[in-house]
Amino acid sequence: KDHKSSCSCVSAGDENDTSWYTLFTPTEATSIVAATVMSHNTILRLSLDYPQREELASCARTLALQCAMKDPQNCALSALTLCEKDHIAFETAYQIVIDAASTGMTYSQLFTIARYMEHRGYPLRSFKLASLAMTHLNLAYNQDTHPAINDVLWACALSHSLGKNELAAIIPLVVKSVHCATVLSDILRRCTMTAPGLAGIPGRRNSGKLMSTDKAPLRQLLDATISAYINTTHSRLTHISPRHYGEFIEFLSKARETFLLAQDGHIQFAQFIDNLKQIYKGKKKLMMLVRERFG
Prior knowledge:
- By secondary structure, the protein is mostly helical.
- The chain has 15 helices and no strands.
- The chain has helices spanning 3-8, 26-37, 40-46, 50-70, 72-82, 87-101, 107-119, 123-134, 149-162, 164-177, 181-193, 218-238, 245-259, 265-279, 284-294.
């Protein structure tokens, strides 16, 4: 086929009323057909001049965008990649992702596209997609090895690097979606180690001051982390066996580190331990271990 007949399957239909979706699935059309059409080998094999190459590339991008609209879950990232060199097509592909984010995309797909956007040098778009991904996520108290944890940590690091406003925008989403105490405490620790905005976009000013855990936005994250430790402690104690006692004491030690980030944290933690000793006094050996470590 010459390049013109290759273009015909991209259009809504040619004189034979043939359209691409009668021949390929959207995934096949983007990953095989459009990618092959735009490859360097195809250009060489067909001996195309510059206008012909541009026409063929335009057809491939149109095909990729149609596929992304039909099946955003499986084709959006391919469409973005294929449309990188054409500003209007790239903007269209990005808008397709945004429109599909609330209904047709999973958090893992959105995180993948968000990471791609950061790699391409669009940190604010990356942040927007990461925020949308967070709204689809629900990480339970006992899911401390969940596959999305690295994405959550990355999204928080991205927002932290952009500045205080972005960090303040993502923290409520984190608090709503993540209920795992160890993940929340990891995010909190990372946020308190450096000032927000230090690795942000060029020209963005920042104070360079470390953020207080007693003020917004970190206060909300601190409160959520403490609550998660309290809830997880009670959940663990419901069905704990003696072989997990040592692990549980270490968990309480991690909890104490988080409690102590609050202004009255030592008082809160002492009350928490006293409460445990009252409620679970029947677990004598475990409460003895708690007394030995925490008084």
